[in-house]
Amino acid sequence: MIDLHDRIAALSPDQRAALAERLAQRNVHADQLDLLLKQRKSHYPLSFAQQRMWLLEQLQGPSPTYLILTALDWRGPLDHEALHASLETLVARHVGLRTRFTLDADGAPRQEILDDLHYHLERQDFSQDAASCSAVDRHMANEAARGFDLTQGPPFKILLYRLGDDRWRLLFKVHHIIFDGWSEGILLAELTRSYAATIAGRRLTLPDPTIQYGQYAEWERHQRRQGRFENALTYWRGQLADVAPLALPHDGLRRPRPTRPGRTYAFTLAPHLTRDLNTFAQTQGATLFMVLLAGFKALLARVGGGDDIAVGTPIANRRRADCESVIGLFVNTLVLRTRLDERATFRELVARVRQTTLAGLNHGAVPFDHLVEALRPQRDPSRSPFFDVFFALQSMPIEPFHLEGVQLTPREVEPDTTANDLTLLLHPIGEGVRVRCKYDADLFSQSRIDQMMHHYRHLLEQAVRNPEIALSSLPLPGGAESVIRGDTWTGADGQSPQPVHRDFEARVRSTPDHPAVCTERETWSYTHLNAEADRIADRIRQAGIRPEARVAVCMPRCPHLVASVLGILKAGACYLPIDPEQPPSRRTAILAESGAVLALVDDEARISHPGAAHFQVMVVQAGPEPAQSQAAPANCVLPIHGDQLAYTIFTSGSTGRPRGVMITHQALARQVAWTRRTLGVGPDDRMLQQVPTSFDPSLIDLFVPLTSGATIVLARAGGQRDLQYLKGILASQRISLVQITPSAISILLELNAFHQQPRLRALIAGGEPLPPSVVNGVQRQSRGRIAMFNCYGPTEATITATFWRCPRTEPVSRTFIGVPVDGMQALILDASLQPVPRGAGGELYLAGPQLMRGYLNAPARTADRLRPHPFSKQPGARMYRTGDRARLSPDGHLNFLGRLDRQAKIRGFRIETGEVERAIQDAVPVRGCRVLVRGEGQSAQLTAFLATAGKPPDIAELRHRLGERLPTYMIPTSFAFLDTLPTLPSGKVDESALPSTAGVPEFRLQPPGSTLERQVAAIWKKHLGLEEIGVNANFFDCGGHSLLLVRIQKELQDLHGREIPLIHLFERPTIQALCQYLERKPETPTAPPSLDRRVAHQRGRRAQRQARARIPAR
């Protein structure tokens, strides 16, 4: 055979010019012709796609992540010698099938051509096995689980299985680093044609490939050196600036080192729908791909992915005609980003997707891996750069293979791993479209994917039928699942419950001498408390106070406070709590803002006159205690209707001014009655009142016991901040019920407060997110004896709107806010007030009889927060916009996702700070934790404040533990350790009181200290071209990239005489963190290995594997 290069070299100058002209007509230019004239070499650099895939292989070790598997069932006679000869011909024609990957002297990877390779066909005979097909499937699965050692030989293998007489199966196993989907067609076509020619006794004559893959890799790098990618890079810099990962709802936790177990859900779009989609695409000047992608992006947005959707998609990238017949990795990835507008129609979305797709194709020459290197997105080993979701439409029909007397049937080999979070593969089959959704089973449940694909099909049907409807209005089946209702409940007589003070009076009649309220020094019976309340109510009426007029109470925790609250309600007035521990200025501001006409105090010095006319101050003093068993006096009876105001409570406002929330008697009575029933409160119970009166749960501490015949135990003033005191009073006062924040429970766990509390039977947690570690700690310490309830509810929904019964004995990995309380409704809606599908995130709205009347003197804010209920048939029904994000779990529980205003976006990544806080609490024992975003734009960073008992944890160890739970970009930049976190009177963390700076900023230059740090710093400076570098400087922020990291790895291995897996360098991108790892004693000493030495395969490991659509490397 005459070598093509020899033939070209023998051409005259005129002949070369003529050849160049003809090649130019086929889009092959002179600089490419020069490449053809170069002498073929035994080794070449890697292409950009190969380089990234090789690096990922170094991070993971040999694995099946990027194997491509294809099977062919063969029925009919098979000539083994002819098949072997055909394989030899195939391998001889395509050097990629005889390539291995080694390192050059500088530690850079290269591809090396093996010229004298003879291919060996591996054969397995299962014809004697009764279940031959099952046995072959098992063998294929085992084969699919083993990766290639890229350094030892070509990552290409064909296995021939014998199933029976004239029944065979061929398995093609090849690494993606030398192969793509187009290559599969070349391989199968040439193999079958060569086999047919061989058995026919003739020689197959095919034109030699004009170039080989290594020459393409050199040409690609030449293009970069010549600046041919710069225009495209300018486009992509603008297109991908600040692109953020999708916020898709997950059922599992994202692991820093994902194992990517893959599952597949498949279905077919019906022929009539496919025809409608094609017709619609033609009318829009679009393609089927664009319409299907637009529908998929609309779906992702509706299920919670956000309004800025970026997905990856493959293109064949064989732009040069001389590449069309070459086996190799040519496929490139485009990132198609679309910003969605909820008011846009599907027709408008298709137009945007069309524009983005065409622009991406016009700038698609730049290799994706060069794009990553040039744009330097934030690094995260658990995610792909720029996208988590992949979308591919295989539009090229698969040509049938014909051999005379043989029936060939392609067989799908379904991988059990996946390379992305979610991959949608579509293939036109007949008149329909086959859809296969590959998903990471660690992140998504089967039920969630089933639902998503059901919604995808439904959305396409609705969109193509009504393309002018706004995307947000396209109905999705099952949206009603995100509207959940508590049990319907009324009073025993079928009516709404009566006001709480009436229930209390009923208890006075039934248990007059039972202790109603006590302190460590005194106890009041129900009769005594009622008498005091009636006396105060009478004084209020005599002062001319009208119904619903606000009457303030400002006094420390004492029985008179309880009597005052009851007296206000009995008099028909509106209770206004003012905490005496609040600053005087705030007390005065609340009095002025509320328009209070009377203040009940134990000391006139408690308050300053707000300056309003007719304002009065009344000092409450004790009256004579009724005699034991004395008949209860006649109660103050005034008609009170359910819509009348019971109390107004002021909460912190976003503007810095407190805002008053007005709650009715009906709302309070329903909440108290529900709590009483749920906890099963009775006369034997003793409930600790330690919540500040300015916090609405304090009303539960008062009225749940008083309407149940139980006893209120008042903690001393300020006692809620002394956890040692609380531990003691739980035991000494035989407390059975207590409301308390998770932060306080965490400290009580440190004090072993729940170990021996025979009377304590229930904890009501609220006010802040409940960490799983707190639930598990109470389980262990109480041995399952103490019940725990996680209660959620804004003040505007009357204390508790939803609740979750925590498991008593089964450890939990996540917590919930549960289900609505009786009569209430929870709705999870998108920005257009449409219900999101089950499992998708959205804003939580609440509806029902416990909603506030409104904000005091703030009609605009009331209208903003209390919206008309779009799904209620009741006239005038409203729902409350909480500002919280939530989703509905598969088992019907609400999962709290955090405040909408606590979502942060740092260097393109959307971060929920609550998730970081939970990870810290799981990683180290802390009393409390708060993570804030400090700075803006590119200077934004996470700062963690930790309240610790005793010696703070080692920061390096904390970072290491967080690295096992969180991706790198979610690990705080700096940490501050405090004795306690500052709190508001409600017990919630006071973020404004946290220090303005925390810890040592990472960007501050810290010179190397130890000998090892100086050695590593010297290596870094050499490769990064820097004169100075701090031990806390981030390698990638200093201009480093993965290939440089490989060279650093080689030097470090030579220096230390042991193997250092690349993943450890990638996960520790600072000198300080890397040296802490290097200082650890290796498990087994090893001689200095070559970087490319790897084990042949790994067993027992669930690893990633490439989907059949030939998804490009991450």
Automatic annotation (TrEMBL):
GO biological process terms on file: amino acid activation for nonribosomal peptide biosynthetic process; secondary metabolite biosynthetic process
Q: Cite a GO CC annotation.
A: cytoplasm
Q: Which SUPFAM superfamilies does this entry report, sorted A to Z?
A: Acetyl-CoA synthetase-like, ACP-like, CoA-dependent acyltransferases
Keywords carried by this UniProt record: Phosphopantetheine, Phosphoprotein
> What is this protein called in UniProt?
Amino acid adenylation domain-containing protein
What InterPro entries does UniProt report for this protein, alphabetically? AA_adenyl_dom (IPR010071), ACP-like_sf (IPR036736), AMP-bd_C_sf (IPR045851), AMP-dep_synth/lig_dom (IPR000873), ANL_N_sf (IPR042099), CAT-like_dom_sf (IPR023213), Condensation_dom (IPR001242), PKS_PP-bd (IPR020806)
| Carrier domain location | 1007-1082
Looking up NCBIfam families in the UniProt record yields: AA-adenyl-dom (TIGR01733)
Which GO MF terms are attached to this record?
Answer: catalytic activity; phosphopantetheine binding
**Key word Protein biosynthesis present:** no
Tell me the CDD domains matching this sequence: A_NRPS, LCL_NRPS-like
